[in-house]
């Protein structure tokens, strides 16, 4: 299998999801889109904030994903927050639907990117963080930043 990361153009990241959830079990899926939607995606007019995945009748759908209407679209332009179908194998749908149902997890979109002109979505199973977990993560990030800054200034002083 060829390495797809060299042809990967990231359109949007969901940084809020990394802050709000403990993430595990990542999966790349395709999307069913209309022509004006893919044109808007190529122009980076997308937001993954507050979007999530649901399972209905053995199929996966993403809700609340915002794709701005295409500027040059006509009467056939798309609805910005419509429910979009995800392209997943049946066994993947079954496996993730069971985990979401039994373990009370959420399937969260992390990234939307293009690979060879096709829109792909990176999903992860997420367990919601409590407020104290979020504070702890911020504290760790600040401590790491201060440590890096101190190491950088120490290396500069040695030279």
Describe the structure.
- The strands form 2 sheets. Strands 1-8-9-2-7-5-4 form a 7-stranded antiparallel beta sheet. It has a two-stranded antiparallel ribbon with strand order 3-6.
- The longest helix has 28 residues, at 131-158.
- The mean pLDDT is 85.
- It is of the alpha+beta class and 159 residues long.
- The chain has helices at residues 15-20, 35-42, 90-102, 131-158; strands at 8-13, 21-31, 46-47, 52-56, 59-63, 66-67, 84-87, 106-115, 118-128.
- It has 4 helices and 9 strands.
- It starts with 7 loop residues before the first strand and ends with a helix.
Task: Summarize the structure in short.
This protein is α+β, with helices and mostly antiparallel strands and 159 residues long. 35% of the residues lie in helices and 35% in strands. It contains 4 helices and 9 strands; from the N terminus they run βαβαβββββαββα.
Present the secondary structure layout.
Elements: E1 8-13, H1 15-20, E2 21-31, H2 35-42, E3 46-47, E4 52-56, E5 59-63, E6 66-67, E7 84-87, H3 90-102, E8 106-115, E9 118-128, H4 131-158
Provide the descriptors you would attach to this structure in a database record.
two-stranded antiparallel ribbon, alpha+beta, 7-stranded antiparallel sheet, 159 residues
* Average pLDDT score: 85
End-to-end gap: 46 Å
**Rounded to an integer, what's the Rg over CA atoms?**
19 Å
Low-confidence stretches: none
C-alpha geometry: globular
N to C succession of SSEs: EHEHEEEEEHEEH
Task: Report the β-strand fraction as a percent range.
Answer: 35-45%
Which structural class do you get from the secondary structure elements? alpha+beta
Number of strands: 9
Q: What composes the largest sheet?
A: 7 strands, antiparallel
Strands side by side in the biggest sheet? 1-8-9-2-7-5-4
How many helices in DSSP terms? 4
Question: What proportion of the residues is helical, as a percent range?
Answer: 25-40%
